[in-house]
């Protein structure tokens, strides 16, 4: 069996970002306005700091107006809510992203629900969740990781996924559930698996498309996957890598890549697969939000 096509998420993300940069420049020329993204970070979680820095840099590289709000870990819930309210009103800001997780004393859902749905570029507000679930994707803002995963699938398999069997392993609100909604809208036959699923290997085996979003290193074994299937590995897991030296680590996905790569049709690597697409889709959502808030058609 030939080796799988390795889906180059970095390259595809770069092409999406180039397109957004071009469209943002056109918007600036036509209206004098830039898409504006505000990212809010509460506390000093090192991983969150890296994510926020990357998002801020990406927004600047796309020619956006980018604002970063870094608040101390002990900032009160009331102050975070006040900042979100202020950003809701700010005409230069079209996208608001509150980096999760928030410190324990802040009610995450209260903060996310306060974000104006039109500016909710993470797509976590119940209004956007509802629109996506109701099949009204055209007026929703869709969570970035599943939206990016769908772009990777379409660039690999073509625009029509209709009739394919898809299995999504994981049912989180951030990845699994919206991914399943998107695939259902593409007319896939969708199975959502989770920690209580019986005989997961048999369920995975029936799938033409496998999306793994579990958060368990290399849990989906190569021989579970049907030959020729397309695999999107959302998982990002850091594991010890003694071969690189004492105390060193490396990133792996939720799929045992080395076992799968010799018989699946196509597979995303970790890193360099879904990860870069998440940020690219955040930029896409911000541009979409900006055009909608300016009452401009979206597809230009
Ligand atoms: P969650 O922890 O919120 O959800 C994990 C899901 O996996 C749950 O639905 C859980 O089931 C299910 N699960 C856990 N163990 C098993 C098992 N043994 N068999 C089957 N299902 C299982 O994680 P997220 O969805 O937030 O993230 C998943 C992964 O994706 C993580 O590695 C995360 O780092 C990565 N990620 C990557 C992003 C990117 O940009 N590439 C962005 C977001 C996440 P149950 O509901 O029953 O508990």
Automatic annotation (TrEMBL):
<keyword id="KW-0658">Purine biosynthesis</keyword>
<dbReference type="InterPro" id="IPR020867">
    <property type="entry name" value="THF_DH/CycHdrlase_CS"/>
</dbReference>
<comment type="function">
    <text>Catalyzes the oxidation of 5,10-methylenetetrahydrofolate to 5,10-methenyltetrahydrofolate and then the hydrolysis of 5,10-methenyltetrahydrofolate to 10-formyltetrahydrofolate.</text>
</comment>
<feature type="domain" description="Tetrahydrofolate dehydrogenase/cyclohydrolase NAD(P)-binding">
    <location>
        <begin position="143"/>
        <end position="292"/>
    </location>
</feature>
<dbReference type="Pfam" id="PF00763">
    <property type="entry name" value="THF_DHG_CYH"/>
</dbReference>
<feature type="binding site">
    <location>
        <position position="236"/>
    </location>
    <ligand>
        <name>NADP(+)</name>
    </ligand>
</feature>
<dbReference type="GO" id="GO:0004477">
    <property type="term" value="F:methenyltetrahydrofolate cyclohydrolase activity"/>
</dbReference>
<comment type="similarity">
    <text>Belongs to the tetrahydrofolate dehydrogenase/cyclohydrolase family.</text>
</comment>
<dbReference type="GO" id="GO:0004488">
    <property type="term" value="F:methylenetetrahydrofolate dehydrogenase (NADP+) activity"/>
</dbReference>
<comment type="pathway">
    <text>One-carbon metabolism; tetrahydrofolate interconversion.</text>
</comment>
<keyword id="KW-0560">Oxidoreductase</keyword>
<dbReference type="InterPro" id="IPR020631">
    <property type="entry name" value="THF_DH/CycHdrlase_NAD-bd_dom"/>
</dbReference>
<comment type="subunit">
    <text>Homodimer.</text>
</comment>
<feature type="binding site">
    <location>
        <begin position="170"/>
        <end position="172"/>
    </location>
    <ligand>
        <name>NADP(+)</name>
    </ligand>
</feature>
<dbReference type="InterPro" id="IPR046346">
    <property type="entry name" value="Aminoacid_DH-like_N_sf"/>
</dbReference>
<dbReference type="InterPro" id="IPR020630">
    <property type="entry name" value="THF_DH/CycHdrlase_cat_dom"/>
</dbReference>
<keyword id="KW-0368">Histidine biosynthesis</keyword>
<keyword id="KW-0511">Multifunctional enzyme</keyword>
<protein>
    <recommendedName>
        <fullName>Bifunctional protein FolD</fullName>
        <ecNumber>1.5.1.5</ecNumber>
        <ecNumber>3.5.4.9</ecNumber>
    </recommendedName>
</protein>
<dbReference type="Pfam" id="PF02882">
    <property type="entry name" value="THF_DHG_CYH_C"/>
</dbReference>
<keyword id="KW-0028">Amino-acid biosynthesis</keyword>
<keyword id="KW-0486">Methionine biosynthesis</keyword>
<keyword id="KW-0521">NADP</keyword>
<dbReference type="InterPro" id="IPR036291">
    <property type="entry name" value="NAD(P)-bd_dom_sf"/>
</dbReference>
<keyword id="KW-0554">One-carbon metabolism</keyword>
<dbReference type="InterPro" id="IPR000672">
    <property type="entry name" value="THF_DH/CycHdrlase"/>
</dbReference>
<keyword id="KW-0378">Hydrolase</keyword>
<feature type="domain" description="Tetrahydrofolate dehydrogenase/cyclohydrolase catalytic">
    <location>
        <begin position="7"/>
        <end position="122"/>
    </location>
</feature>
């Amino acid at each position: 069996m030939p080796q799988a096509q390795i889906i180059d998420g970095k390259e595809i993300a770069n092409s999406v970002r180039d397109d957004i940069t071009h469209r943002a420049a056109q918007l600036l020329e036509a209206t004098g306005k830039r898409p504006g993204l505000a990212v809010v970070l509460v506390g000093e979680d090192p991983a969150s700091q890296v994510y926020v820095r990357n998002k801020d840099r990406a927004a600047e590289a796309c020619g956006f107006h980018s604002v970063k709000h870094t608040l101390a870990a002990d900032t009160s819930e009331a102050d975070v809510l006040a900042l979100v309210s202020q950003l809701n009103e700010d005409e230069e800001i079209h996208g608001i992203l509150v980096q999760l997780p928030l410190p324990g004393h802040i009610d995450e859902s209260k903060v996310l629900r306060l974000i104006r749905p039109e500016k909710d570029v993470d797509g976590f507000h119940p209004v956007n969740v509802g629109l996506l679930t109701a099949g009204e994707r055209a007026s929703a803002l869709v969570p970035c990781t599943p939206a990016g995963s769908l772009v990777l699938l379409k660039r690999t398999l073509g625009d029509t996924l209709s009739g394919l069997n898809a299995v999504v392993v994981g049912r989180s609100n951030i990845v699994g559930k919206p991914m399943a909604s998107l695939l259902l809208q593409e007319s896939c036959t969708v199975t959502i698996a989770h920690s209580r699923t019986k005989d997961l290997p048999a369920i995975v085996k029936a799938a033409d498309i496998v999306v793994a979003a579990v958060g368990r290193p290399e849990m989906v074994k190569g021989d579970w996957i049907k030959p020729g299937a397309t695999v999107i590995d959302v998982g990002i897991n850091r594991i010890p890598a003694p071969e690189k030296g004492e105390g060193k680590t490396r990133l792996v996905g939720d799929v045992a890549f080395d076992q799968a790569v010799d018989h699946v049709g196509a597979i995303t690597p970790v890193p360099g697969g879904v990860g870069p697409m998440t940020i690219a889709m955040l930029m896409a959502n911000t541009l979409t939000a900006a055009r909608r808030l300016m009452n401009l058609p979206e597809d230009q």
